[in-house]
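Quick check before the chapter quiz. The format below is the same one you will see on the exam, so make sure you can read both the input and the output lines.
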Amino acid sequence: MGVMTVPEVEAQAVPDGAFLLDVRENDEWRAGHAPTAVHIPLGELQVRAGEVPPDAPVYVICRSGGRSAHAAAWLNHVGRDAINVGGGMQAWGSAGLPMVSESGRDPFVA
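Here is the expected output.
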């Protein structure tokens, strides 16, 4: 089997009300995430796939787009309609899209 291509959109193109799945690790999630995102770390996705809606497009995001591309490819393989968010949360933040942080700090400032 060749390299699987995954549909991809820019952060600004994620529709309002879409199911946004954040596959980053817990510390990254706490630092800052989209207000409506659902958090399932990549390592837990296979056992928690039942939490992903089977009948709606799923927009998958990580920090920069790599892990989410793997997650989207796997979700598509198991029958979901998954789209990677290119550039991840870095692009999301750069586009000025809404973000919430559990630490109260800017998520991308050390």
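If your answer matched, good. The mean pLDDT is 91.
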